[in-house]
Amino acid sequence: MPDASTPDEDGESTRPVETAKPVSKKKILLGIGAVAVVTIGGLLIKLAQKNYATENVETHESLGARVPTPAELEFAAIVRAAAESVGKIMSVSTSGFNVEAKIRSNSGRGTWTAYFEFDEETGHCHYSHPYRGATAPRFFIAEVQRRLSEAVAT
């Protein structure tokens, strides 16, 4: 095609606007196919997620259901009584012979957690907590061990 530029009033040559090339039917079909695949794939994923999320499984037992032994029940009672006698202990929870205690901070504005593992046979205790110089955990252990000794003696 010859250069169809024409000079304008300033003497500069201008070119006519080129028109877009027609898109082939093959390219259009490929584009539509790609969009359809992505759309259908997304719908299948959503459908699979919906089916998974709404599936109900009925059980009659809780996963952690375990009946505590009489020794564990007596230990839990001793732990609660010992915690009441140590003023800084806010709450305790037991699982077997393991204890988690929430202890009030010195400022009284917060709490921190201490963990205790009592040996069922000897009463010895391993414990951990975040404050090295804290005395409440030691007082608690001493009180639990004293009460365990009293329970064994009777």
Strand arrangement within the widest β-sheet reads 3-4-5-6
Sequence of secondary-structure elements: EEHHEEEEH
**Residue share in helices?**
40-55%
Radius of gyration: 38 Å
Considering the chains and any ligands shown, give keywords for the structure.
alpha+beta; 3 helices; 19% strand; 154 residues; four-stranded antiparallel beta sheet
Explained architecture:
This protein has 154 residues and is α+β, with helices and mostly antiparallel strands. It has 3 helices and 6 strands, in the order E-E-H-H-E-E-E-E-H. The strands form 2 sheets. Strands 3-4-5-6 form a 4-stranded antiparallel sheet, with helices on one face. A two-stranded antiparallel ribbon has the order 1-2. A hairpin with a 5-residue loop joins strand 1 and strand 2 (13-14). The longest helix has 29 residues, at 25-53. The N and C termini lie far apart (115 Å).
List the helices and strands and how they pair.
Elements: E1 6-7, E2 13-14, H1 25-53, H2 70-85, E3 89-95, E4 98-104, E5 111-118, E6 125-128, H3 136-153
Helix pairs in contact: 2-3
Short structural description:
The chain is an alpha+beta fold. Helices cover 41% and strands 19% of the residues.
